[in-house]
Amino acid sequence: MARRCDICGKGRQVGHKVSHSHNKTRKVWEPNLQRVCADVDGTAERLVVCTRCLRSGLVTKRA
Prior knowledge:
By secondary structure, the chain is mainly beta. It has 1 helix and 4 strands. The chain has one helix at 51-56; strands spanning 13-18, 24-29, 33-40, 43-50. It has a two-stranded antiparallel sheet.
């Protein structure tokens, strides 16, 4: 499963973890993705959605 939101396309971010002595190591920030059963054009569809899209109402969850 790709770690990407089906609605907004939000994916992982890559950067450095910087210590006090300024040593840099690679770090990855993963988005908070949830698998939800959503209503898409009147049919139930399973989507991978970030919590920002869920919270803002871009996805209507199936009851």
